[in-house]
């Protein structure tokens, strides 16, 4: 094998190597997300173990969502890692084929298609994990707003959502608005 042949094989291997660097960055992002999920799970666990509370449904729902996100992120990491392994195998077969003067084009094509399929499915799981994370944020914000409304309704019984806006009219209970009571 001549130096020009080796240079040509290296040129062919450059594109998969760039793909490997992109997959490495993606794996870094995914592992950071899993780390944050684990940290949040531990934080919830420590809070409720120390207080000895039974888990209320909201906390149980958050723990279930974190568990689901972990499973989805695990599949994304597994598939992206499989993609990286397939790309590495492709590069090895490319060099072995060049050194042994074998026709490895069909093996390379199959490996590349399998790698891209694994990457596509891994990216789908990554997108699904992001969807779950944003859905849980909306759920927590909505539940927090509802608990704030319930707390406000207990503090201000005359100014509930049923009594309408504070426009100076009496409430539905028939009592006058506190600001419109005549001074004597």
From TrEMBL:
Q: Name one Pfam family in it.
A: DUF2721
Q: Which UniProt keywords apply?
A: Membrane, Transmembrane, Transmembrane helix
Q: Where is this region: Disordered?
A: 148-184
What domain of life does the UniProt record list for this protein's source? Bacteria
Name of the featured protein: DUF2721 domain-containing protein
* Transmembrane intervals: 6-32, 72-100, 106-132
Task: Fetch the InterPro entries from UniProt.
Answer: DUF2721 (IPR021279)
């Amino acid at each position: 094998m001549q130096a020009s042949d080796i240079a040509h094989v290296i040129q062919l291997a450059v594109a998969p190597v760039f793909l490997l660097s992109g997959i490495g960055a993606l794996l870094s992002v995914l592992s950071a997300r899993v780390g944050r999920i684990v940290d949040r799970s531990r934080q919830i666990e420590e809070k409720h173990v120390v207080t000895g509370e039974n888990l209320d449904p909201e906390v149980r729902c958050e723990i279930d969502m974190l568990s689901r996100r972990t499973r989805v992120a695990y599949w994304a990491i597994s598939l992206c890692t499989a993609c990286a392994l397939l790309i590495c195998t492709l590069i090895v077969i490319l060099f072995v084929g060049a050194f042994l003067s074998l026709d490895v084009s069909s093996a390379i094509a199959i490996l590349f298609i399998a790698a891209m399929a694994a990457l596509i499915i891994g990216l789908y799981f990554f997108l699904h994990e992001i969807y779950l994370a944003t859905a849980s944020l909306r759920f927590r914000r909505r539940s927090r707003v509802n608990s704030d409304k319930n707390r406000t309704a207990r503090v201000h019984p005359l100014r509930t959502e049923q009594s309408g806006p504070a426009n100076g009219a009496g409430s539905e209970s028939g009592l006058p608005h506190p600001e419109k009571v005549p001074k004597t």
